[in-house]
Amino acid sequence: MNSSPRRPDIATSCARPPADVELSTTPLTPPIHLSVVYKIDGLDHVDALYEGRDSGFIYARDGHPNAAQLGEKIATIEGAEAGLVCASGMAAEAAVFLALLEQGGEVALSEGLYGRTVALVGRELPRFGIKHRLFDSTRPETLRKALTPATKVIFAETLSNPLVRLADIAGLADIGRAAGVPFAIDHTFAPLLCRPLELGADFVVHSATKLIGGHSDLTLGLVATSRERMARVATVASTFGLAGNPFESWLALRGSATLPVRSARACATALTLAGHLAGDKRVGAVHYPGLPSHPDHERASRVLRGGFGTILTIDLGGREQADAFIRNAREIPFAPSLGDVATTLSHPATTSHRGQSAEQWARQGITPGLVRLSVGLEHPDDLWHQIDQALTS
Measured by CB atoms within 10 angstroms of the end CB, which terminus of the chain is less buried, N or C? Predict the structure, then answer.
């Protein structure tokens, strides 16, 4: 009888994964865990994993190491008990809405939000029997009027898109708490500038695609909240397939390491540019909370720390003037996103708020002449030179 070990066929050797490498050291930067599924010892082990008695992962839609690391990072940044990674900012919003709402429920929705958020609540959720009522996030008394016994969630943005109005987060949170209605806030425009959970919000969502990622090379969303609330949101995210993938989670972790430096630099430059533009007769209006003329400047001075944000919006009069500015600002690309290391331009009427009615535009203060600048890390003198030339051309 031949007792030598059987050598597997080459096809078997190719198909099977290599053995784990035993290390006495750990990598300085987190590795990327691309595996969709994880090996489990047996039935008792899988029971322990599903019941939370043992740590580990089973299937990437339910969680993976890179998402766990990024979730912990956003929880730390926001002062939350738990963080969750979703496939996009809209997926993060959808996960919160789907966790809190059911047929017959209502959303108290702030005016002046990102266009896709308005479309989600105003066009998609009504198909499931969900209604909404509007309020002004800068005037908490309007929220009180919007609440009904059917209201299941309050939703606002820290800094609105695109007019950068600063929500009265503490005032809204007080009203929501008194009514027993959870309050969720989109903090995409203002990571690090304040902590909405400390001001009374129950959920914070981010598009990590923007400032947290910081390089326009990933698409992810984040949720931060209590462990109790997160249990429901995470289940919904997994069931609806809203989870984020490992590689982009790893990219966002890399981006988060430089977020404080990038945010401080871009906020300082944005304030400088806003000051130049505010005194320029070629510009009809400048929207930036760091300017004394901004309607929320006093609140911004009290609430925001480390700057007034990286987004400023200018009104050039009409579509023709906006188009000329965008075309003439050749070194500042027209790229409808934000939060990149490079400064970019966007035109809300044809991008983020495209498809909305004239009435919706008027209610939100959106005009065909609005151009939004997402300020990056260039030297402010270079940016002003390019903007000045674009306004002159």
Answer: N
Q: Can you tell me the distance from the alpha carbon of 389 to that of 328, in angstroms, rounded to the nearest whole number?
A: 8
Task: Give residues with Cβ within 8 angstroms of 233, minimum separation 6.
Answer: 84, 95, 96, 99, 203, 223, 225
Q: Is the pLDDT of residue 355 over 80?
A: no
Q: Rounded to an integer, what distance in angstroms lies between the CA atom of residue 357 and that of residue 140?
A: 26
CATH fold of 60-257 reads Aspartate Aminotransferase; domain 2 (3.40.640)
Q: Angle 105-140-159 (CA atoms, 0-180°, nearest 5)?
A: 90
3 pLDDT tier (thresholds 50, 70, 90): low
Per domain, the residue ranges of the chain are 60-257, 259-392
Q: Give 3-state DSSP helix, strand, coil % of the chain, rounded to 5.
A: 40, 15, 45
pLDDT in tens, 373-385: 999 999 999 999 9
Sign of CA dihedral 106, 107, 111, 115: negative
- Residue 203 DSSP SS3: strand
Report which DSSP code applies to 193.
T
DSSP 3-state assignment of 176? helix
What's the pLDDT at 360?
81
d(CA 343, CA 212): 15
Residues 127 and 101 sit within 8 Å (Cβ to Cβ) = no
pLDDT band for position 217 (50/70/90)? very high
The class that CATH gives domain 259-392 is alpha beta
Measured CA to CA, the distance from residue 94 to residue 104 in angstroms comes to 17
Instruction: Measure CA of the first residue to CA of the last residue in the chain; give whole Å.
Output: 90
β-strands 151-157, 106-110 pairing:
parallel
